Amino acid sequence: MCNLGVLSVLNWSLRLMATIHSLQETGSISGSLRMDIFTQILLAIFQGEFPPGARLKVQHVAAQFGVSSTPVREAFVELVGLGVIEMVPNRGATVSPFGVKEVREIYHIRRLLEVEAVRCACDCADLKPLQQIQQDTIALQSAYRDKDWGIRCLELDRLTHQAIEEASGVKRLATEINRYNRLVHMMRLLLRHQDKYLDPVLSEHLTFFEPLLRRDKEAAGQKMALHIDATCERVVEGIFSSDRAEN
């Protein structure tokens, strides 16, 4: 794992609070106690507070976060479903490894889901919302880079993928994408100097918008795959130092 200094931990904690608040306001995650505990455990795992192989006892985690055991058990179920922790007979919950290999596995699944979503979106009867997001993306590229520019980029990124999920018309597909997006949002909090990655994201979005809006499924799927793969490598670079990267 990357080393975390006191200032870095404080900075990431503030970003976590802002991200959770933003996601709750936009409906990306529930404001329930279960989801709050899920988020806190997930970030603690990603930051190395709960290292791979560590046993997580419901009572201990509940005491640490000052809650009852019920939301912790519910959060464990969600984390098991995402492969972040596993239930081992006679040992309870243990933390699964988190490294470059695991990040790439997460993005591999995300690529499969997002590619299928953009292909299905090509059949959507009304592509006007996506056309508007395309125009918003072009405008944001040339906008003045004030202190809020990065926040606007992240929000537009979320809206872009959400709009594609909705346009796909496949509810179960959108549900699975949202499950993986929870992992993606937490990994973003670990990125060092994440603002430098935002320009490529906007440019890559435009590459799949063009074939999507002309309803070219093959080309849209290929461009989405390239975007997700590139995002994966940016996350790997941003989280892990080169001398600690695992193959």
Automatic annotation (TrEMBL):
The keyword Transcription regulation applies. Pfam families: FCD, GntR. Residues 31-98 form the HTH gntR-type domain. Keywords: DNA-binding, Transcription, Transcription regulation. GO terms for molecular function: DNA binding; DNA-binding transcription factor activity. This is Regulatory protein GntR, HTH:GntR, C-terminal. It comes from Blastopirellula marina DSM 3645. The lineage of its organism: Bacteria, Pseudomonadati, Planctomycetota, Planctomycetia, Pirellulales.
